[in-house]
Amino acid sequence: MAKLKSLKPKNKEFVFTSYGNDKEEVPAKIIFSRFPLPMENFTTVDKKDLFKGIDVDGISKKELQSKIADKIVESFLSNLNAGNADFRQFFSECVDGFKDLEYEDKKIITPADFWQMLPQDAAHTIASEAYEYAMEREEFTMGNSNT
């Protein structure tokens, strides 16, 4: 019988390296509830007025639909190409909490604590590292159930 085996399982307790955390005696950890699926990328949505720059009065319905479709694709591609990930959404969907993380003598336990207590630069740096780790794909192989 064939058996799917993980060659490189990811740990749900992630020790980030930002700010020398990994060198601490007791490093802080991000606790993942799950890792993103291959097609999840948590891209931000570029909120634009789809009708901006389009003269809706002097245009046919078919031309209007075409121009709106072009604007939607343009907006999607600009976000995708920029690689803008919505770290808050990513944390809310994939991170359970934190272990051994403090800022100014206050424990950070939940994703909400993380975004509310940490300075924006620090939160973004740590979140970016966590996102990169979470997006790494696990490697698998097929093998005999006897091996």
- Please give the largest β-sheet: 3 strands, antiparallel
**Tally the helices: what do you get?**
4
> What structural class do the secondary elements suggest?
alpha+beta
Rg (CA only) = 21 Å
Strand order of the largest sheet: 2-3-4
**Percentage beta strand:** 15-25%
Shape: flat
Uncertain stretches? none
Name the helix and strand elements from N-terminus to C-terminus, one letter apiece.
EEEHHEEEHHE
Helix residue percentage: 25-40%
Task: Quote the distance from N terminus to C terminus.
Answer: 11 Å
What does this structure look like?
By secondary structure, the protein is of the alpha+beta class. It has two domains: about 20-40 and about 85-135, no CATH class; about 45-85. The protein is about 35% helix and about 20% strand. The protein has four helices and seven strands. The chain has helices spanning about 60-80, 85-95, 110-115, 120-135; strands spanning about 1-5, 15, 30, 95-100, 100-105, 105-110, 140-145. A three-stranded antiparallel beta sheet has the order 2-3-4. Strands 1-7 form a two-stranded antiparallel sheet. Helix 2 crosses helix 4 (about 120-135). The radius of gyration is 21 Å and the shape is flat. The mean pLDDT is about 85.
